[in-house]
Write a structure and sequence with these properties.
This protein has 312 residues and is α/β, with parallel strands linked by helices. The chain has a single domain (5-310), classed as TIM Barrel, CATH 3.20.20.140. The chain has helices at 14-22, 39-52, 71-91, 107-120, 143-152, 168-171, 180-195, 197-200, 215-229, 237-241, 254-264, 281-294, 296-310, and strands spanning 5-10, 56-60, 96-101, 125-129, 131-132, 135-136, 155-159, 205-208, 245-247, 269-270. It has an 8-stranded parallel beta sheet. The longest helix has 21 residues, at 71-91. The relative contact order is 0.13. Residues 5-312 form the Amidohydrolase-related domain. InterPro entries: ACMSD, Amidohydro-rel, Metal_Hydrolase.
Length: 312
Protein backbone atom coordinates (compact mmCIF):
# COMPACT_ATOMS: atom_id res chain seq x y z
CA UNK A 1 0.00 0.00 0.00
CA UNK A 2 1.27 3.44 -0.93
CA UNK A 3 1.10 5.97 1.91
CA UNK A 4 3.31 9.05 1.97
CA UNK A 5 4.02 9.77 5.65
CA UNK A 6 6.12 12.66 6.94
CA UNK A 7 7.68 11.55 10.25
CA UNK A 8 9.34 14.88 11.10
CA UNK A 9 6.61 17.48 11.49
CA UNK A 10 5.77 19.86 14.30
CA UNK A 11 2.55 21.31 15.66
CA UNK A 12 2.63 23.60 18.68
CA UNK A 13 -0.42 25.46 19.88
CA UNK A 14 0.04 28.80 21.63
CA UNK A 15 -1.34 27.20 24.77
CA UNK A 16 1.35 24.53 24.71
CA UNK A 17 4.15 27.00 24.04
CA UNK A 18 2.87 29.26 26.80
CA UNK A 19 2.94 26.33 29.22
CA UNK A 20 6.50 25.22 28.49
CA UNK A 21 7.66 28.83 28.50
CA UNK A 22 6.06 29.30 31.90
CA UNK A 23 8.28 26.47 33.15
CA UNK A 24 11.43 27.95 31.67
CA UNK A 25 11.83 26.85 28.03
CA UNK A 26 12.48 29.44 25.32
CA UNK A 27 9.78 29.20 22.65
CA UNK A 28 10.65 32.23 20.54
CA UNK A 29 11.89 30.15 17.60
CA UNK A 30 8.63 28.22 17.36
CA UNK A 31 5.98 30.94 17.18
CA UNK A 32 4.37 32.60 14.19
CA UNK A 33 5.50 29.97 11.70
CA UNK A 34 2.16 28.45 10.72
CA UNK A 35 2.66 25.41 12.93
CA UNK A 36 -0.26 26.09 15.24
CA UNK A 37 -3.66 24.49 15.46
CA UNK A 38 -5.94 27.29 14.29
CA UNK A 39 -8.35 26.59 11.41
CA UNK A 40 -6.42 28.88 9.07
CA UNK A 41 -3.08 27.29 9.92
CA UNK A 42 -4.45 23.79 9.50
CA UNK A 43 -6.09 24.65 6.18
CA UNK A 44 -2.82 26.05 4.86
CA UNK A 45 -0.92 23.00 6.12
CA UNK A 46 -3.34 20.56 4.50
CA UNK A 47 -3.18 22.45 1.20
CA UNK A 48 0.62 22.18 1.31
CA UNK A 49 0.42 18.45 2.03
CA UNK A 50 -1.94 18.00 -0.90
CA UNK A 51 0.39 19.88 -3.23
CA UNK A 52 3.24 17.53 -2.27
CA UNK A 53 1.17 14.35 -2.25
CA UNK A 54 1.75 13.81 1.49
CA UNK A 55 -1.01 11.75 3.08
CA UNK A 56 -0.18 12.12 6.75
CA UNK A 57 2.20 13.79 9.18
CA UNK A 58 3.37 12.31 12.47
CA UNK A 59 3.33 15.17 14.98
CA UNK A 60 5.99 15.57 17.66
CA UNK A 61 6.77 18.27 20.22
CA UNK A 62 10.61 18.21 20.34
CA UNK A 63 12.64 20.24 20.84
CA UNK A 64 10.04 21.66 23.25
CA UNK A 65 9.73 18.34 25.07
CA UNK A 66 8.38 17.95 28.64
CA UNK A 67 11.80 17.16 30.07
CA UNK A 68 11.86 19.01 33.38
CA UNK A 69 13.68 18.38 36.64
CA UNK A 70 10.42 18.93 38.49
CA UNK A 71 8.28 15.80 38.07
CA UNK A 72 4.95 17.57 38.47
CA UNK A 73 5.85 20.03 35.74
CA UNK A 74 7.05 17.26 33.42
CA UNK A 75 3.87 15.23 33.89
CA UNK A 76 1.60 18.23 33.44
CA UNK A 77 3.27 19.26 30.19
CA UNK A 78 3.44 15.72 28.79
CA UNK A 79 -0.23 15.06 29.46
CA UNK A 80 -1.20 18.42 28.00
CA UNK A 81 0.78 17.72 24.82
CA UNK A 82 -0.54 14.20 24.41
CA UNK A 83 -4.15 15.19 25.02
CA UNK A 84 -3.85 17.95 22.43
CA UNK A 85 -2.26 15.66 19.87
CA UNK A 86 -4.83 12.94 20.48
CA UNK A 87 -7.54 15.51 19.81
CA UNK A 88 -5.95 16.57 16.53
CA UNK A 89 -5.61 12.94 15.45
CA UNK A 90 -9.26 12.25 16.32
CA UNK A 91 -10.39 15.28 14.32
CA UNK A 92 -8.11 14.62 11.34
CA UNK A 93 -7.34 10.88 11.32
CA UNK A 94 -6.43 10.88 7.64
CA UNK A 95 -3.94 13.71 8.12
CA UNK A 96 -2.26 13.20 11.46
CA UNK A 97 -0.70 10.58 13.68
CA UNK A 98 1.40 11.43 16.73
CA UNK A 99 4.46 10.53 18.75
CA UNK A 100 3.90 10.70 22.50
CA UNK A 101 5.67 13.25 24.67
CA UNK A 102 7.33 11.71 27.74
CA UNK A 103 7.89 13.31 31.18
CA UNK A 104 11.54 12.36 31.41
CA UNK A 105 13.73 11.83 33.37
CA UNK A 106 11.01 10.56 35.74
CA UNK A 107 10.77 6.90 34.81
CA UNK A 108 7.68 5.75 36.70
CA UNK A 109 5.73 8.74 35.40
CA UNK A 110 7.14 8.11 31.92
CA UNK A 111 5.99 4.48 31.90
CA UNK A 112 2.52 5.56 33.01
CA UNK A 113 2.25 8.23 30.34
CA UNK A 114 3.74 5.99 27.66
CA UNK A 115 1.11 3.35 28.44
CA UNK A 116 -1.68 5.92 28.33
CA UNK A 117 -0.43 7.34 25.04
CA UNK A 118 0.03 4.01 23.27
CA UNK A 119 -2.81 1.99 24.80
CA UNK A 120 -5.52 4.62 25.24
CA UNK A 121 -4.70 7.51 22.91
CA UNK A 122 -3.56 5.38 19.97
CA UNK A 123 -0.21 7.04 19.37
CA UNK A 124 2.24 5.39 17.00
CA UNK A 125 5.34 5.79 19.16
CA UNK A 126 7.13 8.22 21.42
CA UNK A 127 9.54 11.11 20.96
CA UNK A 128 12.55 12.35 22.92
CA UNK A 129 15.34 14.84 22.44
CA UNK A 130 18.95 13.84 21.83
CA UNK A 131 19.67 14.21 25.54
CA UNK A 132 17.49 14.48 28.62
CA UNK A 133 18.55 17.51 30.65
CA UNK A 134 22.13 16.84 29.61
CA UNK A 135 22.00 13.06 30.17
CA UNK A 136 22.80 10.96 27.08
CA UNK A 137 20.10 8.58 25.91
CA UNK A 138 22.55 5.70 26.30
CA UNK A 139 23.18 6.50 29.98
CA UNK A 140 22.60 3.62 32.39
CA UNK A 141 19.98 5.65 34.23
CA UNK A 142 17.71 5.32 31.19
CA UNK A 143 18.12 1.54 30.82
CA UNK A 144 14.60 0.91 32.20
CA UNK A 145 13.19 3.15 29.45
CA UNK A 146 14.88 1.09 26.75
CA UNK A 147 13.66 -2.11 28.40
CA UNK A 148 10.08 -0.87 28.40
CA UNK A 149 10.25 0.36 24.81
CA UNK A 150 11.70 -3.00 23.79
CA UNK A 151 8.97 -4.88 25.65
CA UNK A 152 6.39 -2.86 23.76
CA UNK A 153 8.17 -3.09 20.37
CA UNK A 154 7.72 0.68 20.28
CA UNK A 155 8.88 3.33 17.84
CA UNK A 156 11.13 6.01 19.34
CA UNK A 157 11.72 9.21 17.41
CA UNK A 158 14.83 11.21 18.40
CA UNK A 159 15.12 14.94 17.66
CA UNK A 160 17.85 17.45 18.55
CA UNK A 161 17.57 19.23 21.88
CA UNK A 162 18.65 22.62 20.61
CA UNK A 163 21.30 23.03 23.31
CA UNK A 164 24.26 23.37 20.92
CA UNK A 165 25.60 20.03 22.17
CA UNK A 166 26.57 21.93 25.35
CA UNK A 167 29.27 23.76 23.35
CA UNK A 168 29.78 27.53 23.59
CA UNK A 169 31.78 27.28 20.38
CA UNK A 170 28.44 26.55 18.69
CA UNK A 171 25.98 28.45 20.86
CA UNK A 172 27.92 31.71 21.07
CA UNK A 173 28.70 31.92 17.37
CA UNK A 174 25.29 31.86 15.66
CA UNK A 175 25.26 28.12 14.88
CA UNK A 176 22.65 26.78 17.32
CA UNK A 177 20.49 25.05 14.72
CA UNK A 178 22.36 25.01 11.43
CA UNK A 179 25.37 23.28 13.00
CA UNK A 180 24.28 22.45 16.54
CA UNK A 181 21.31 20.30 15.57
CA UNK A 182 23.15 17.83 13.30
CA UNK A 183 26.03 17.72 15.79
CA UNK A 184 23.55 16.68 18.48
CA UNK A 185 22.16 14.02 16.13
CA UNK A 186 25.65 12.70 15.47
CA UNK A 187 26.66 12.55 19.13
CA UNK A 188 23.42 10.97 20.32
CA UNK A 189 23.39 8.26 17.68
CA UNK A 190 27.07 7.44 18.10
CA UNK A 191 26.50 7.07 21.85
CA UNK A 192 23.71 4.60 21.13
CA UNK A 193 25.84 2.63 18.69
CA UNK A 194 28.85 2.37 20.98
CA UNK A 195 26.66 1.40 23.95
CA UNK A 196 25.07 -1.38 21.93
CA UNK A 197 21.55 -0.02 22.38
CA UNK A 198 20.29 -1.14 18.93
CA UNK A 199 21.39 -4.76 19.44
CA UNK A 200 20.48 -4.94 23.14
CA UNK A 201 16.94 -3.72 22.42
CA UNK A 202 16.21 -5.04 18.93
CA UNK A 203 12.44 -4.56 19.17
CA UNK A 204 12.74 -0.78 19.48
CA UNK A 205 12.37 0.96 16.14
CA UNK A 206 14.61 4.01 16.49
CA UNK A 207 14.08 6.87 14.03
CA UNK A 208 16.50 9.76 14.15
CA UNK A 209 16.56 13.14 12.45
CA UNK A 210 18.47 14.84 9.67
CA UNK A 211 19.96 11.83 7.89
CA UNK A 212 21.80 10.98 11.10
CA UNK A 213 23.71 14.26 11.19
CA UNK A 214 27.30 13.67 10.11
CA UNK A 215 27.11 9.91 10.62
CA UNK A 216 27.04 8.97 6.90
CA UNK A 217 30.37 10.76 6.49
CA UNK A 218 31.88 9.25 9.65
CA UNK A 219 30.75 5.64 9.50
CA UNK A 220 33.96 4.19 8.08
CA UNK A 221 36.00 6.29 10.49
CA UNK A 222 34.01 4.84 13.41
CA UNK A 223 34.58 1.32 12.14
CA UNK A 224 38.32 1.94 11.80
CA UNK A 225 38.80 3.50 15.24
CA UNK A 226 36.17 2.18 17.63
CA UNK A 227 38.15 -0.86 18.85
CA UNK A 228 40.92 1.22 20.41
CA UNK A 229 38.79 4.17 21.49
CA UNK A 230 35.55 2.42 22.52
CA UNK A 231 36.58 -1.20 22.90
CA UNK A 232 33.43 -2.11 24.81
CA UNK A 233 31.21 -1.64 21.78
CA UNK A 234 29.56 -4.99 21.01
CA UNK A 235 29.60 -4.68 17.21
CA UNK A 236 30.93 -2.54 14.41
CA UNK A 237 29.26 0.89 14.38
CA UNK A 238 28.30 0.39 10.74
CA UNK A 239 26.37 -2.76 11.63
CA UNK A 240 24.66 -1.08 14.57
CA UNK A 241 23.82 1.98 12.47
CA UNK A 242 21.89 -0.16 10.01
CA UNK A 243 19.52 -1.17 12.80
CA UNK A 244 18.12 2.40 12.94
CA UNK A 245 16.05 4.55 10.58
CA UNK A 246 16.88 8.08 9.47
CA UNK A 247 14.58 10.83 8.25
CA UNK A 248 15.38 12.59 5.01
CA UNK A 249 15.65 16.15 6.32
CA UNK A 250 18.81 17.17 4.49
CA UNK A 251 17.69 20.55 3.15
CA UNK A 252 17.45 19.05 -0.32
CA UNK A 253 21.18 18.44 -0.59
CA UNK A 254 21.31 15.48 -2.94
CA UNK A 255 24.85 14.35 -2.06
CA UNK A 256 23.77 14.13 1.58
CA UNK A 257 20.79 11.84 0.99
CA UNK A 258 22.85 9.73 -1.43
CA UNK A 259 25.54 9.35 1.26
CA UNK A 260 22.90 8.26 3.78
CA UNK A 261 21.38 5.76 1.36
CA UNK A 262 24.78 4.28 0.54
CA UNK A 263 25.81 4.20 4.20
CA UNK A 264 22.66 2.75 5.75
CA UNK A 265 20.62 1.42 2.81
CA UNK A 266 17.68 3.24 1.27
CA UNK A 267 15.35 0.92 3.20
CA UNK A 268 16.53 2.67 6.39
CA UNK A 269 15.42 6.12 5.22
CA UNK A 270 11.98 7.61 5.91
CA UNK A 271 10.43 10.83 4.70
CA UNK A 272 10.84 13.88 6.93
CA UNK A 273 10.32 17.56 6.16
CA UNK A 274 10.85 19.45 9.45
CA UNK A 275 7.65 21.43 8.85
CA UNK A 276 7.29 24.40 9.48
CA UNK A 277 11.01 25.08 9.06
CA UNK A 278 10.78 23.77 5.53
CA UNK A 279 7.51 25.20 4.25
CA UNK A 280 6.20 26.46 0.92
CA UNK A 281 8.61 25.74 -1.93
CA UNK A 282 11.15 24.38 0.55
CA UNK A 283 8.61 21.77 1.64
CA UNK A 284 8.02 20.68 -1.95
CA UNK A 285 11.75 20.53 -2.58
CA UNK A 286 12.34 18.53 0.63
CA UNK A 287 10.20 15.77 -0.87
CA UNK A 288 11.09 15.99 -4.55
CA UNK A 289 14.83 15.79 -3.96
CA UNK A 290 14.64 12.25 -2.59
CA UNK A 291 13.64 10.48 -5.84
CA UNK A 292 15.72 12.97 -7.80
CA UNK A 293 18.78 11.78 -5.87
CA UNK A 294 17.88 8.12 -5.37
CA UNK A 295 15.75 7.23 -8.39
CA UNK A 296 13.31 4.36 -7.90
CA UNK A 297 14.65 3.71 -4.39
CA UNK A 298 13.54 7.22 -3.50
CA UNK A 299 9.93 6.35 -4.25
CA UNK A 300 10.07 3.56 -1.68
CA UNK A 301 11.53 6.01 0.83
CA UNK A 302 8.65 8.41 0.25
CA UNK A 303 5.74 6.02 -0.01
CA UNK A 304 6.48 2.77 1.81
CA UNK A 305 9.19 2.76 4.47
CA UNK A 306 7.52 4.88 7.15
CA UNK A 307 4.14 3.16 6.79
CA UNK A 308 5.81 -0.22 7.31
CA UNK A 309 7.68 0.90 10.43
CA UNK A 310 4.69 2.65 11.97
CA UNK A 311 2.11 0.04 11.03
CA UNK A 312 -0.10 2.56 9.23
Amino acid sequence: MVMRIDVHAHLWTDEYLDLVEHYGQDTSAHRGLGAGGSPDELAARFALLDSAGVDRQVLSVPPRSPHFADENQAVEVARFANDQYADFVRRYPDRFAAFAALPLPHLDATFKELGRALDELGMVGASVTTDVLGTPLADASLTPLWEELDRRSAVLYIHPTGAAAQSPLIKDHHMLWMVGAPVEDTIAITNLLLAGIPSRYPNVKIITSHLGGALPMLLQRLDDQYEWEAGGAPEKPSIAARRLWYDTVGHSHRPAVRAAAESFGSDRLVLGTDFPYEAGDLFLRAIAYVPEALGADGNNVLDHNAAEILGL
